[in-house]
């Protein structure tokens, strides 16, 4: 059905027929719920779909084939590090010894997992040039929240309660200012300098007794290393603030730059970017936070501790009284962390350095190939990603970055991140990663050059793209104005509502 | 071992195109003073070495025990079809569906997840997922503050301690406050939310309450008077958020039926492995009226330019990449693959299967209750429960530890779950699911009786009852431990 013919799939609910899912579980005793008060029980069963296993498999297999994926093709999304996800890591997390361990398992029954987590704390500390690591945060954004709450706790522990501002460069990920707000700080946006780096004068003017800290992404979201990082750190420290680094772009600098060694006080890793754990269609990720020794008392617990006799254990409640407390349940997204551990152990120090070198080389190579056809602002070597722009192309042809992105789909590539960073007009943030071959990089660059040519000769071909995807461009305005966020099952098991006027694919 | 494709020749060609001789030149923006020359990491492992090490480490975890532990994470039968779907590279190696034309697979599965959870909770709007039950509960609390435009939340101590602590962390930065509502220490409703205390806390006119949060079942496994809690909250102008265990919703009344405005919960029981705590699935759902307050991604149905049904992330103006410091939450990455797992699991079981799982757990739990009571450990609370309950065991931590030697993971000591609560000093919180066998129950009861008698200074009696399958008391893996 998906290779030929209609590729779109009916909903799971449309595939349902009463009696189609015959039970394969032992039936519950008829009196199982008699001891439970009637008012606590549900009056009618939830209207879940009834499908047999073959129907279920076909549904999801056909849906999967409507997706772009790293396994299927090039996915040059800037700031996302869509590198290959090693298969041995998927095997690892399915080992019953790891998968079946309960989060409240007593320490003596969890020595294998605790050993992995303890070692990962140390590996990340070494990579970051830091002293202590919490593995608890569930994603990069939660890592940021953790880091900024740690900054807050540090200042409060010194009786310094007047620091209410976090300075954020205007090139930052949107999560940075959103995090500062969640942590109760006012965000002060600082414009970037003309060369794309931090504007030290602007930071100097903004930093003062109200400055709790700075959130800096390095390499920045422009794909540039902050060449003035040392001066920035000194300046913030002199004002009494701390420096938090968004480590989303660590894939560029493994073994080349250790943030802690440069005086940065705290950072998070996005293990789903740098350390190859799969993105899963949006998650799960993990966002471990690494800090210098002075901030270790404030980290959320439980950390994994190794006793003198070599045994591992989780910290007990209250063991580090200055801790900011939990940011989620249990020890963290352990399955994700095991994959990160396996990735780091598979590479070793030289392997990780080579990862970054290949990622940076690939980005510079593609950038070089696009120069002269697309705008390539900031004329200096990039790190693992770079900004190209279609601003000139738009002025000359009317074709926008959005159109170029959609046309790439027709040519067999996932579009790069578009309209980000916000400070570059018609931006495309392109991150090839180290796992794409030279042939792929060339084919991608060729495709972008072809699209620029098409914009001049056949602009409608570009502005009407994509032509070959399962669907054409979507009516996003109606989706937002009249939200249809769930299927509504008709009372008698008939055709559901929520199908809107849309043409339903055949069952 | 590298996973990348580049040969020496490939690198040379790229360097050549850039007009440089070594890749070092590309790192010149890193100031010399802070440029690292390498890392001190253990040597790279071959794939064989890596797999051997992982097998060894996995073997050092004891997952052979007869397990009666729940307390926020529950083992359930996962039909193999669930993992087969999760192993589709098209799903697990995809990114957030920002380009809908090439992401209809993920988008439709998320829409269907939202629909399934809406059915389960009886609510209208379901976020595409949050990190876990704790983070979802914290976000629910923040939603009540935005929705009610008030700054104080009342949180039942029947909500899991990890969730309460997470909420406290999320609230630490801002101007919002929360108070905990105690549980009754005794009486027929012991262990459930103290409604009189709730009324007193709601009556403080100087600190109007935005939201009341209670769990069903609560952390002690007990069923709470949710409709009454919601009624009290609503009467004071507060919103009502229910923290739910989703498998229980196969048989228990859904939050939408007892007046909850928001439901939050841990989705792990819906087919996700225990995995020592994650990745799990934060469920967050609400009534239509609160749709602008719900954080996280939402997928909606729409049409493409040719009128075909299609799906897209929608109402994105709430999100951090657009609203930045004014966003509803900083959440970006979520738990999409875990949401997919739960959707496949729910569809594989269907309404009948889900009911059977929930009801079988209840039946097994009743069997467990009777066996433990006969062994000398009666229930700690008299009220109704579904499949998890606390029993009275003196010196529970020590008994719990000794039961490991019998091959039994005897739940969790209640004092470990709720340190410092005198009413919970001597207890074990235990649970049963459809995976719990009568043999395991018999083993647990026999071993517990032996330990309780030993604790009273009485020598253990006869050997194990006939038919009880005793797991080996140790394993090669344990002996291999350094």
Verbal overview:
The complex is a heterodimer of chains A (507) and B (482). With 507 residues, chain A is of the alpha/beta class. Helix content of chain A is 33%, strand content 10%. A 7-stranded mixed beta sheet of chain A has the order 1-7-6-5-4-2-3, sandwiched between helices. In chain A, strands 10-12-11 form a 3-stranded antiparallel beta sheet. In chain A, helix 8 links the parallel strand 4 and strand 5. In chain B, the strands form 4 sheets. A 7-stranded mixed beta sheet of chain B has the order 2-8-7-6-5-3-4, with helices on both faces. Chain B has a 3-stranded antiparallel beta sheet with strand order 11-14-13. Chain B is globular, with a radius of gyration of 26 Å. Chain B is built from 15 helices and 14 strands. Chain B starts with 7 loop residues before the first helix and ends with a helix. With 482 residues, chain B is α/β, with parallel strands linked by helices. In chain B, helix 11 (336-374) packs across helix 14. Chains A and B meet through helix 1, helix 2, helix 3, helix 4 and helix 5 of A and helix 1, helix 2, helix 3, helix 4 and helix 5 of B.
| Helical amount of chain B | 25-40%
Strand content of chain A: 5-15%
CATH superfamily of the domain at 348-463 in chain A: Aspartate Aminotransferase, domain 1
The CATH superfamily of the largest domain in chain B is known as Type I PLP-dependent aspartate aminotransferase-like (Major domain)
Strand content of chain B: 5-15%
Poorly predicted tracts of residues of chain A: 492-501
* Broad shape of chain A: globular
List low-pLDDT spans of chain B: 459-482
């Amino acid at each position: 059905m998906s290779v030929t013919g209609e590729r779109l799939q009916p909903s799971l609910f449309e595939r349902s027929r009463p009696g189609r899912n015959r039970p394969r579980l032992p039936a519950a005793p008829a009196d199982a719920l008699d001891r439970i008060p009637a008012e606590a029980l549900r009056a009618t069963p939830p209207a879940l779909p009834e499908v047999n296993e073959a129907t279920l498999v076909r549904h999801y297999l056909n849906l999967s084939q409507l997706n772009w994926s790293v396994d299927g093709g090039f996915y040059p999304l800037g700031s996302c590090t869509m590198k290959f996800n090693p298969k041995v890591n998927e095997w690892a997390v399915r080992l019953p010894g790891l998968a079946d361990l309960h989060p409240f398992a007593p320490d003596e029954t969890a020595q294998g997992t605790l050993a992995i987590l303890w070692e990962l704390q140390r590996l990340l500390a070494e990579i970051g040039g830091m002293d202590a690591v919490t593995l608890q945060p569930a994603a990069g954004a939660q890592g940021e929240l953790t880091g900024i709450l740690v900054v807050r706790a540090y200042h409060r522990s010194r009786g310094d309660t007047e620091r209410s501002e976090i300075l954020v460069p205007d090139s930052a990920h949107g999560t940075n200012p959103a995090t500062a707000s969640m942590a109760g700080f006012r965000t002060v946006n600082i414009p970037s300098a003309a060369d794309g780096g931090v504007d030290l004068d602007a930071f100097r003017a903004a930093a003062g007794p109200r400055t709790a800290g700075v959130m800096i992404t390095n390499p920045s979201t422009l794909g540039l290393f902050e060449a003035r990082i040392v001066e920035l750190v000194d300046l913030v420290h002199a004002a009494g603030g701390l420096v938090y680094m968004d480590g989303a772009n660590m894939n560029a600098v493994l073994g080349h730059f250790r943030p802690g060694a440069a005086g940065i006080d705290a950072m998070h890793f996005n293990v789903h970017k740098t350390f190859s754990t799969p993105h899963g269609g949006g998650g799960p990720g993990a966002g471990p936070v690494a800090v210098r020794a002075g901030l270790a008392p404030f980290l959320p617990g439980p950390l994994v501790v190794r006793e003198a006799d070599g045994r591992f254990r989780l910290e007990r409640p209250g063991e580090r009284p200055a801790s900011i407390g939990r940011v989620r349940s249990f020890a963290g997204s352990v399955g994700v962390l095991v994959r990160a551990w396996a990735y780091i152990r598979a590479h070793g120090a030289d392997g990780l350095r080579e990862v970054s070198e290949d990622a940076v080389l690939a980005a510079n190579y593609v950038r070089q190939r696009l120069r002269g056809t697309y705008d390539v602002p900031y004329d200096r070597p990039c790190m693992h990603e770079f900004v190209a722009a279609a601003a000139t192309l738009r002025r000359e042809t009317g074709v926008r970055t959005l159109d170029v992105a959609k046309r790439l789909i027709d040519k067999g590539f996932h579009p790069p991140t578009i309209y980000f960073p916000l400070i570059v007009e018609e931006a495309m943030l392109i991150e090839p990663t180290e796992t794409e071959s030279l042939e792929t990089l060339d084919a991608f660059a060729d495709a972008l050059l072809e699209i620029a040519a098409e914009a001049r000769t056949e602009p409608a071909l570009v502005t009407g793209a994509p032509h070959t995807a399962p669907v054409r461009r979507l009516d996003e305005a109606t989706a937002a104005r009249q939200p249809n966020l769930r299927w509504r099952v008709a009372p008698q098991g008939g055709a559901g509502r929520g199908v809107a006027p849309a043409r339903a694919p055949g069952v | 071992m590298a996973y990348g494709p580049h040969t020496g020749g490939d690198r040379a060609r790229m360097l050549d195109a850039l007009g440089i001789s070594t890749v070092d030149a590309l790192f010149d923006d890193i100031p010399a003073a802070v440029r690292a020359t390498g890392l001190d990491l253990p040597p790279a492992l071959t794939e064989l070495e890596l797999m051997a090490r992982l097998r060894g480490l996995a073997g050092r975890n004891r997952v052979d025990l007869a397990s009666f532990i729940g307390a926020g994470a529950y083992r359930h039968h996962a039909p193999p079809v669930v993992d087969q779907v999760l192993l589709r590279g098209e799903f697990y190696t995809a990114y957030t569906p920002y380009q809908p034309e090439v992401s209809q697979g993920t988008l439709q599965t998320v829409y269907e997840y939202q629909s399934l959870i809406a059915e389960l909770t009886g609510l209208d709007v379901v976020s595409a997922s949050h990190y876990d039950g704790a983070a979802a509960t914290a976000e629910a609390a923040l939603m009540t503050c935005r929705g009610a435009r008030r700054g104080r939340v009342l949180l039942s101590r029947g909500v899991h301690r990890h969730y309460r602590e997470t909420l406290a962390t999320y609230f630490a930065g801002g101007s919002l406050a929360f108070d905990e509502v105690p549980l009754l220490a005794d009486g027929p409703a012991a262990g459930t939310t103290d409604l009189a205390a709730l009324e007193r806390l709601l009556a403080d006119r100087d600190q109007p309450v935005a939201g009341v949060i209670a769990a069903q079942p609560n952390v002690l496994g007990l069923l709470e008077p949710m409709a009454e809690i919601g009624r009290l909250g609503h009467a004071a102008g507060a919103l009502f958020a229910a923290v739910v265990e989703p498998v229980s919703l196969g048989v228990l009344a859904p939050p939408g039926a007892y007046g909850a405005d928001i439901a939050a919960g841990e989705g792990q029981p819906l087919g996700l492995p225990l995995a020592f705590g994650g990745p799990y699935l934060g469920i967050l759902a609400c009534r239509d009226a609160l749709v602008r307050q719900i954080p996280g991604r939402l997928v909606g149905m729409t049409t493409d330019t040719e009128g075909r049904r299609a799906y897209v992330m929608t109402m994105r103006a709430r999100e951090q990449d657009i609203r930045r410091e004014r966003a509803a939450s900083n959440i970006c990455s979520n738990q999409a693959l875990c949401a997919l797992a739960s959707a496949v699991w729910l569809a594989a079981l269907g309404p009948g299967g889900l009911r059977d799982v929930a009801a079988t757990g209840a039946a097994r739990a009743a069997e467990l209750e009777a066996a433990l009571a006969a062994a000398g450990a009666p229930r700690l609370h008299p009220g109704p429960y579904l499949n998890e309950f606390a029993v009275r065991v003196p010196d529970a931590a020590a008994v719990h530890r000794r039961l490991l030697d019998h091959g039994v993971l005897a739940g969790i000591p209640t004092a470990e779950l709720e340190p410092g609560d005198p009413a919970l000093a001597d207890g074990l919180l235990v649970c049963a699911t459809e995976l719990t066998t009568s043999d395991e129950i018999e083993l647990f009861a026999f071993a517990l009786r032996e330990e309780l008698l030993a604790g009273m200074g009485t020598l253990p009696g006869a050997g194990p009852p006939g038919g009880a399958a005793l797991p080996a008391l140790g394993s090669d893996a344990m002996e291999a431990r350094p």
